[in-house]
Amino acid sequence: MPVASVLSPHLRRASCSALAALGFAALLSGCAGLPANEGRVESKALQDPSATTLATRIAADAPTDTQARHRAGFRLLGDVESAYGARLALIDTAEKTIDLQYYSIHYDRSTEALLQRVRAAAARGVRVRMLIDDFNAGGENARVLRMDEVPGIEVRLFNPVQGPRNWQPGRLFTALFDFQRIQQRMHNKALIADNVLAVTGGRNLGDEYFGQDSKSNFLDLDVLVAGALVRQISGTFDAYWNNPLAYPAATLLTQQERQSLDRKRKPQPDAAPAQGGESHPADTSAAAAPAEPDSARPVPGSAGIAQDIEKGTLKLNWAPATYVADHPEKISGDEPDDEDETVVDGMINLIQRAKSDLLIVSPYFVPGAEMMKAFEGIRARGVRIRVLTNSLASNDAPLAHVGYARYRKALLALGIELYELKAMGETERRFLGSTPQSRSSLHAKTLVMDGRLLVVGTMNLDLRSALQNTEQAIVIRSRSLSGELTPAIEQALQDSYRPAMQDGRLVWHVPASDKERAGQVLTSEPDASTSLKLMVDIAGPFAPEEML
């Protein structure tokens, strides 16, 4: 997410006097600098997981023929129930190790229910490693860092910046004085149990990713992974965990900040366990559950796939696949950059092999020169290209829309079919965890090529993912899984706005599913406020694409 998009709400709400105080506090906190990252103990993923319960269950489902043994097992996690329930089931079933690597872990109700399971796993002897990108690990979210006080759990922050951890606005202001560092983020997302099963994809941990936020929700996609590919995901985790940019939380969160988080915390009732799953006693540490309004949705239950994991009846789709991930050196700069090895460059190379059809889902879509060249090449061969991205109104980072808007007319001129997600309205047909009456924002990062190749990852097709963030993705060759996801994407296309050129100007066609406006043609960004439209017009010519 662009830092400017996160900073702007704080700056808009702050008065001049508050900004002055904020700046003074930030400058004071910045004087100390980062602590020396010394005394860390290097650790690795479980080397031989064959004797674990999960390994036994997966082996029973794996193909037996010689040619298929190299394949990995997959299950798509499009709805919030399976995405959340699978995570809980992996945590509950793990016997040796749990590794969590996330760009953002929000301190809220669904996260607390999950972290209760993590604490219970540690109590039964499971080694837990939590690696979190530093950008969102402040304010209320800093309470998650106190998991490092639980025996058996170690927490590290990747690429930290200076500033007070218990006050997020202060850290954001401090970031202005280290702007390049704050732009470079670990955007990876994975949860790995016993080095046997993993969940990876677009979702961070937080209510809005699992249909729990009453105001907004992210439409997202994960995949459950089994087989040798999990070892590669764990290898990437180890590379980041042992990298010099990974700081133990204990060295970054001061005792004063820990006490401050304690004072802020109000006594809370037990965190609601997932329906159908095992409940655990309420935790009395500083990471206890935050307050939620009475209207909060129940936490998704451990149904379906989660029960299959716990009972050993899991059925996976086994297929050839490749795992790709950026090296942490992309941020640390310890080695020269190799552009051919970045995840986004790999996606551009893959796109150029399309023969007939390309479906792209990217929340923040800023193609850049190289991707536009790839599009030109495959369009010249007659390949159909359809792209689903956020509208200005549905985009949680409006400045990212600036970069997309620059390319919109050129994309349409190539014959590429663009679709922009509607932000509001009744959700008659569910897509990737959509919920009725909530503001929807697209967050899934996926593509389907020629009906036989599927990609699920953390990367957006934009210059930020290409140049600033570290990313990961899985490329699966499976007509079955491609056929499972394609109808869901095509359904979303039907329910989205479709930009087009008409009489030399840009217009938006309202989808037939919009009962009040079906068939109408709009002449400005749908559902967006005047201020948002003005921001795009003003920032458009000046904002650097790699920062959007």
TrEMBL record:
Record PROSITE patterns: PLD (PS50035)
Signal peptide (UniProt feature, chain positions): 1-20
Residue ranges constituting the PLD phosphodiesterase domain according to the UniProt record: 182-209, 438-465
The entry's keywords: Signal
Record InterPro entries: PLD-like_dom (IPR025202), PLipase_D/transphosphatidylase (IPR001736)
Name of protein: Phospholipase D family protein
Start-end of Low complexity biased regions: 278-293
SMART domains, alphabetized: PLDc (SM00155)
Origin superkingdom: Bacteria
One of the protein's GO biological processes: cardiolipin biosynthetic process
GO molecular function: phosphatidyltransferase activity
Segments for region (Disordered): 256-304
